[in-house]
Amino acid sequence: MQVPLLDLKLQNQPLKSRILAEIESIADSQGFILGPVVERLEKAVAEYCGAGYAFGVSSGTDAQLVLLMALGIGPGDAVVTTPYTFFATAGCISRVGARPVFVDVDPDTYNISVAGVARALETVPGIKAIVPVHLFGCCADMAALLELGRQYGIPVLEDAAQALGAEHPLGGAGAIGDAGWFSFYPTKNLGAFGDAGMVVCRDAELAARLKAFRNHGMEPRYYHKWVGGNFRIDAIQAAVLGVKLPHLDGWSAGRRDRAAFYRREFERLGTPLRLPVEPWAGSGRSNHHIYNQFVVQTTDRDALRAHLQQAGIGTEIYYPLPLHLQECFQSLGYKPGDFPVAERCARESLALPIYPELTEPQQAYVVGEIARFFEARPA
Tens place of pLDDT for every residue, the chain, 379 residues? Predict the structure, then answer.
């Protein structure tokens, strides 16, 4: 049996005719940049996540970049974030000339450590923002982080690139803090047919700046109060996302069902894996992890991955080297051992196949192969 890490064809094929009709409509109108298709998507995403304002941009990376630019974060400033995340989280901080300040992650959720953020705020001068990441589709501890933001008078900016549709007791991912952003990279729960993203916020003044900054700082046309960038989403990508958005809750529920199957079977078999946690489940709302990835941990990670590859099962390592040890950040002065939990995650984490169309026989095969691997290991 072959079990890919992800099979986008199974999701996109049933929507093909509707998506192609939308693309044909745009081709007929020749309205390729911004316009009513983009505005409809922005309104729908703002309503979906609970934000006041939403602006489509060219990628999740550019969503973060334009937000930092609009907030005036730059040279001489510092931003506290996690070293266990996709590169863009810290890369954008560096690109505006600010300094990433890393703190370790929680060993259960893999999200940023609240205690670590508190220590950084006490000891590091010049911190202008807190950037938690809702990693793999699980919300960070936003109540505690917002309280720290209030104490120090700085914004909490949510990297919700992997988490559109995730719920926290305080609301939807991306719309809990002062601002946030999403990625619509094709492998996300809501994926475009290429790069696309969205930045969201509640404040009207910030919204006006974001709208201008994504279009060269231009407002009105050919008048530039600020130096922005070309961060516009294409109308074709907005059209694809507009067709897919109504299906997102169902797809995320499918991922949660598959996660529950894994958890149930691994626990039944006593498989020695650290499984994902759901810190907000049962806390008063329909709070949930949306499982953009189902990530387990084992000290036998590399051998297990090789075994699964031989068995025709796709896996991925998110992420093999934490950001504080990346060559491009050597000048920040971090060294091995500074963030032991993040470093352990990088050594031991493995993402298993999880997508709404994954069948129970395929999952049973994955579970069986993992059980077979551990049964063959020395006691």
Answer: 999 999 999 999 999 999 999 999 999 999 999 999 999 999 999 999 999 999 999 999 999 999 999 999 999 999 999 999 999 999 999 999 999 999 999 999 999 999 999 999 999 999 999 999 999 999 999 999 999 999 999 999 999 999 999 999 999 999 999 999 999 999 999 999 999 999 999 999 999 999 999 999 999 999 999 999 999 999 999 999 999 999 999 999 999 999 999 999 999 999 999 999 999 886 555 678 999 999 999 999 999 999 999 999 999 999 999 999 999 999 999 999 999 999 999 999 999 999 999 999 999 999 999 999 999 987 6
Distances (CA, A) of 367 to 3, 373, 375: 12, 10, 12
- pTM here is 0.96
Q: Is the backbone peptide bond immediately before 355 cis, with ω within 30 degrees of 0?
A: no
The packing angle between helices 16-29 and 235-244, to 10°, is 150
Residue at 312: amino acid letter? G
**Domains located in the chain, CATH noted:** 8-246 (3.40.640.10), 247-375 (3.90.1150.10)
